[in-house]
Amino acid sequence: MKLADFVHSNKLKKREFNARLPALRAELLEAQNSLRKADFPVILLFAGVDGAGKSEVVNLLNEWMDPRWLINRAYGRPTDSDSETQRPAFRKYWHDVPPRGRIGLFLSAWYSKVLLGSVAQRVQPDDFQNHVQEIRRFERMHANDGALILKFWMHLDKRHQRKQLERLEANPATSWRVTHSDWAHWAMYNRFVQAGDQIIEATDTKLAPWRVIDGADHRYRSITIAEHLLEAIKNRLAESKTKSKPQTTSPQTSTTKSPVPAKPAPAKKEFKPSHVNWLSGVDLKQTLAKKDYRLRLAQSQGELNRLFRQAKQQRVSSMLAFEGWDAAGKGGSIRRILQALDPRNYQVVPTAAPTAEELAHHYLWRFWRHLPTGGDITIFDRSWYGRVLVERVEGFARPDEWQRAYKEINEFEQQLVESGIMVCKYWLHITKDEQLRRFEERQTTPHKRWKLTDEDWRNREKWDEYESAVNDMIQLTNTPQAPWVIVPANDKYTARIHVLDAVCDQLRNFLM
Fold first, then answer.
1. Model pTM?
2. Which domains, ranges and CATH numbers included, belong to the chain?
3. Rounded CA separation 132/206 (Å)
4. What angle is formed at CA 49 by the lines to CA 229 and CA 187, rounded to 5 degrees?
5. What is residue 455's three-state secondary structure?
6. Which of 42, 85, 377, 409 would be 103's cystine partner, CB 3.0–4.6 Å?
7. Which residue windows does the record flag with biased composition (Low complexity) (predicted)?
8. In whole angstroms, what is the distance from residue 498 CA to residue 512 CA?
């Protein structure tokens, strides 16, 4: 049904409202308590016409439930000085999504820009499709990760909207809620309805369905939304009980960690591994004399410093992701980059086993939190590729999780580049024999012994499995906007210069 055809026919008498509310509140609190132990979050999104009671419903849910376990988020229009304008638009929503076991209530969120832009006729058809794809992608990622997403379009016809705004305006206690923008939007009511129909039709999916709520009667809309929330949580909790309990044990030193069901969920599509051996063509015999290395190091670091000062002036930020075999020299390469930079403008993020807080979110959540801004640089010593490397090989992620991760990672990096962030990715490659030599050297050198762990030796036993995972990773995520650089690292001097020169080349091209 089109919003223009919506008829207000729902009303709840005060006596019935008061009779139903006590049991409903008790059940909501019970469901909320059960949810706290569950492995999924709940995302409630409220959209619709002004005056339909979105804020009032959010306030009531905070009153009826335990507000300690609710997350309320509303978003205003960003200013030019807001750091979020220099990051992907969805960064703030990724930052604010609730962890597993919690409920997030979102107002003026990821639908606001496309809705208001369409009403103001600033959004062209191509732009509309881009907005829609970004919304569907965001909701799909979180739904696939287990989130329960409920979206409510709260609706009023034009006559009821005017009456509601007049009622609020006439009451001194609520008059502040009505602004000039509300009346301007009322004057463009037909555009709002048309845009609402388009948005609902384009983003009403099985994973994140819309529900249109009659907003004319405050009792009806409040009870209806609360009952729908209760039913959805109870159904999801019942579904969760039928599944096998997750295994949560995994090596403490692993790069990433994710609960693994006893019976892995089958992949939706048959995974086709890469038949291209990206690592076989790397010339690992390259060497560089120490004298030549020092000369080239100074030249490359000088050029890198010049380019990053230029990037800082243009407010072009950068993200560098370092992956590679254990003992391949990632740390040494990163240190040579840092020597060329101002420490006020960079951050190094060592990606270790996720914390309890990080495990309670989508695996990309912790990387969204570290996006640079204002021409700064963030360097990841191991990165989001742990999902398709260590989590895949060690079984910390189900096959369906790591197989869909290639697409999710490509979309993540695409959003970064589209927002003006340069993305560089490096795989440091060495032979198995060279790795063994370095392991043995670390074992006998006191100041290097701490670097070698039992996990390193275990990973080495799975060299072939990791090599297959690396080839798939490069094959499926080597995109024009974020290409892989495979670094020959048997010789450390060669590797460091290779990395420095690659960063300079990529930054130079990005600034053109």
1. 0.86
2. 3-243 (3.40.50.300), 289-428+485-511 (3.40.50.300)
3. 15
4. 175
5. helix
6. 42
7. 245-260
8. 21
